[in-house]
Amino acid sequence: MALFDLSLDELRDYRSESAEPEDFDDFWAATLAEARTHDLDARFEPVDSGLSTVRVLDVTFAGYGGHPVKGWLTLPADADEPLPLVVQFLGYGGGRGLPHEHLLWASTGRAHFLMDTRGQGSAWGGGGGTPDPVGAGPAYPGFMTRGVDAPENYYYRRVYTDAVRAIEAARSHPLTDARRTVALGASQGGGITLAVGGLVPDLVAVAPDVPFLVDFPRGTTLTDRHPYREVGLFLQTHRDRTADVMRTLSYFDGVHFAARGRAPALFSTALEDRTCPPSTVFAAFNAWAHEDKRIEVYDFNDHEGGGPFQEQTKLRWLRAYA
Q: Which domain of life is it from (predicted)?
């Protein structure tokens, strides 16, 4: 499909109609406070990855509910002092995979922490290792409607909390410099990046690429692609639940986290992206609170976005921050 969303001029002025809950800040403050009642218990175990230019540590830390969450910390092999830290979040359905799949950021001389996504890790890549021990009510297959009956039960409450704790865990290692922490990710990882950008006040930069989990009122009605479509298919069956579902989703909408963004930001979008429509990305970009922000637009790309071109752009952009 060619262009299907608003024109680029309209996108630059677009604002989401997602209604922010009055208790949004209180909800997240209470959620994170509860998570921090559990000892972070970050453990870093060296692994024999077969790689000679980097050191890889198998990480376990306590996320939401004190549940164990996995990650990889990859360091340049000769690291002997604290390094700028890049914390990365994964796209929908993927897991942390194997260490050799993720070498870009350590190759720049930075520390790289990759968080596994609970309950995911079987759709692409080398797999995941973090279960989600929390049950949920009836849901459409996938993750978008798990626990959607109430914000307190929603799946992404756990994931976003894990992500904040992942940053805390990564910063606890002596070879990472907490003062120079960057968060980034693509698609679902971009949406999680927006969340931590609004919840962690002292990041030095964020880079959400083609972010998912943004502007739910538009995303769930504009595109017929998964994962947004999972919500519509759930509501095809649960016809009387639309208002309740949209209320739950509003607590997890990247637009509202963007309004609290306190770090410089580099976004990207693709104008033929039917998975994460460009208007939803611009909704977050236009709401991003920090004045130092830019967005890369890829005119003829779908959800692959800028791919290696965007990676190159990030490599150059981050030199100014970490």
A: Bacteria
Q: Which of 215, 256, 273, 279 is catalytic?
A: 273
- The token duo for 186 is 């693509």
Catalytic residue among 187, 250, 268, 279: 187
Rounded-to-integer distance, Cα 258 and Cα 242, Å: 24
User: At residue 270, does pLDDT exceed 80?
Assistant: yes
Whether 220 is covered by a domain: the verdict is: yes
Phi-psi region of 5 (alpha: psi -120 to 50; beta: other; left: phi over 0): beta
pLDDT of residue 114: 98
Determine the pLDDT at residue 232: 97
* Total domains in the fold of the chain: 1
Indicate the pTM of the whole model: 0.97
| CATH label of the domain that carries residue 181 | 3.40.50.1820
User: Residue 232, exposed/middle/buried by CB under 10 A (0-12, 13-18, 19+)?
Assistant: middle
Q: Containing domain of residue 26, as a range? A: 8-320
Does residue 273 have an active-site annotation? yes
Tokens of 114: 């990759």
Tell me whether residue 3 is in a domain: no
State pLDDT tens for residues 123-136: 888 999 999 999 88
Q: Is residue 2 part of a domain?
A: no
Q: 187 an active-site residue?
A: yes
Closest CA to 263 of 294, 291, 296: 291
* Residue set of the binding site for substrate: 92
Q: What is the pLDDT of residue 1?
A: 58
Q: 182 lies in a domain?
A: yes
